[in-house]
Each structure stands twice: as C-alpha cells, then as structure tokens.
Amino acid sequence: MSTIQDKIVVITGASSGIGEATARLLAERGAHVVLGARRTERLQRLCAEIEEAGGSAEYHALDVTDLQSVQALVEQTVARHGRLDVMLNNAGVMPLSKLEALKVQEWNQMIDVNIRGVLHGIAAALPVMQQQRSGQFINIASIGAYAVSPTAAVYCATKYAVRAISEGLRQEVGGDIRVTLVSPGVTESELAESISDEGGRAEMREFRKISIPAEAIARAIAYAIEQPADVDVSEIIVRPTASPF
Ligand code: NDP
User: Fold this and answer.
1) Domain extents for the chain?
2) What is the pLDDT of residue 174?
3) What pLDDT, on a 0 to 100 scale, did the predictor assign at position 225?
4) What is the pLDDT of residue 1?
5) Which single residue of 110, 113, 114, 242 has CA 20 to 30 Å from 193?
6) Which of 202, 199, 108, 198 is nearest to 157 (CA)?
7) Treating both helix axes as pointing N-terminal to C-terminal, what angle do 40-52 and 17-28 enclose, rounded to 10 degrees?
8) Of the residues 22, 90, 165, which should be mutated to test ligand 1's pocket, given the most ligand atoms within 8 Å of the CB?
9) Distance 191 CA to ligand 1 centre (A)
10) Which CATH architecture has domain 8-228?
11) For the chain, which residues score pLDDT lower than 70?
12) Is residue 160 among the annotated active site residues?
C-alpha cells in the first residue's frame, strides 16, 4: 500500500506549475494537501477540482518571504490535523538577466523567495517534526543547483544554496526526519514569465521547447514520499531526455 495515503502535506507555491501538479497527484494518491500561494483564487479553484475528483485539500494565502505567514500556515495545519508529515518547499521565481543589467531588485526577490522562503519553511516546520519525531522536507532546487550559465548567476546561486541547506539539514536531523532535494530540468510551468529582460525571455522560450510536463516532477516527489520511513531519497534530478544540461 502507498505510504502517501493519509499524509498531511503542505505545498508552497501550489497555484501553478510543479506545485499544482504535485497537489493533484498526491491528493489522487490519498494525501490531504494544504496549498499555499499568493494567488488564492487559483488555489480555491484547484481545491474545488481536487475535491470534485474525490481528494482532500484546503488552501491558505501564503507569502514565503514572510516568516509569520509560513508559520501561520504550519500552525493552522497542525491545529486542524494534529500533525505535519511533509513540508514541500516549492515556491520559486526565476527573473533571469545578466549581472551587468544590475537588476538588483530581482536579485533580492530571488534571494527572498528561493532561499529565505525555504529557510522559513524549515523554521516553521522543523520544531513540529522534531516534536513528532517524524516528517519529511522536500526542497525544490534545479539543475541550476549543479551548474551555472550566463543570465542565471543569481538564480543558480539561490539553488546552490537550497542544495547546501538541504544537505546540512539532512545531516543534522537524520534519524527521525527525512530530507529530499528534487532538482528539475526545464519543466512546463509559468516560471519563465518572471523574466523581465526581453532578450532573456526570447532565449528561454527557445530553451524551454524541450520542457517535460510538471507531472514528471510530481511523480519524483511522490516516489520520495512513498518510500518506507527508514529510506531517505536524498537527491533526485529529473530532466528532459533531450536536455544537454
Ligand atoms: P511557477 O511559476 O509555475 O510556480 C511558482 C510558484 O511559486 C507559484 O505557485 C507562485 O505562486 C509561487 N510563489 C512565487 N513567489 C511566492 C511567494 N512570495 N510566496 C508564495 N508563493 C510564491 O514555476 P514552477 O512550477 O516551475 O516552479 C516551482 C519550483 O520549481 C521553483 O522553485 C522553481 O525554481 C523550480 N524549478 C522549475 C523549473 C522549470 O523549468 N519549471 C526548473 C528547475 C527548478 P503565487 O504567484 O500565486 O504566489
């Protein structure tokens, strides 16, 4: 029997792309999914669709750059369900540009969402999991956590950071708590829409032609969750077969 059944799973950035696909798949496999993002009308629609299909879901407004917002989401989840089994730190942004464009605000946004957002997820959920003596963090990095390319220096830096934080966390809390890093290659989603640089957008459209569906990443996440409690799938890279990167 799948160990996804009846798990309480918090998903940040569930309003589109990989978060949305993962919410649908895990709910289909019997988890209760707690969805967080800023665009609540989308979450409301997704919740309704999941429940119509026989699944179980709820949603909350969430801004991962705000520690209190992430803490509130975790607190409400534990108050309602008595526990938290999986914290999926998925929310991310990718406004790519060359460093010489000096888009300092966008650098800060990537640091705030991609790094601080993950740290806030850990700060909110770790005490709960330590008290339960069980749980799993799944942090979404990228192939950009393993190699750097032009226009992606800051984005890759944030994803290298997520990889480092995840490995450090795994070493510190292993025993009761599992830590999994999932690193997608190009995947269908709205991620490239955060690119404000016109040249970068055009390049990315070309690069993204080989994208795999978001469900491919959702299946990798499900695989990591459904392993027995003493098996920690620490790192997974899922990329298009045609990807040179
Ligand atoms: P999407 O743009 O489709 O989804 C990103 C999600 O993050 C949205 O639900 C968005 O919701 C949410 N988000 C952004 N900022 C915040 C915030 N401040 N607070 C809460 N939620 C926020 O892209 P993906 O599905 O592709 O991205 C998911 C993860 O996958 C990211 O970490 C990304 O870096 C990673 N990734 C994606 C790849 C790809 O090719 N698609 C490749 C490698 C990694 P809202 O705007 O409603 O708040």
Assistant:
1) 8-228
2) 87
3) 98
4) 42
5) 242
6) 108
7) 20
8) 90
9) 6
10) 3-Layer(aba) Sandwich (3.40)
11) 1-2
12) no
* 217 C-beta closer than 6 A to ligand 1: no
82: region left, alpha or beta (phi > 0 left; psi from -120 to 50 alpha): left
| pLDDT at 120 (0 to 100) | 99
In DSSP terms, 182 is beta-bridged to: 140, 236
Give every CB contact of residue 110 below 8 A, 6+ residues apart in sequence. Answer: 93, 94, 95, 154, 155, 158
User: How many helices (H) and strands (E) in the chain?
Assistant: 8, 7
CB 30 within 8 A of CB 5: yes
Q: Express each pLDDT in 51-72 by its tens digit.
A: 999 999 999 999 999 999 999 9
Residue with tokens 């809390």: 173
Encoded tokens for 57: 């879901």
The most distant pair of C-alpha atoms in the chain lies apart, rounded to whole Å, by: 53
**How far is the C-alpha of 6 from the C-alpha of 242, rounded, in Å?**
36
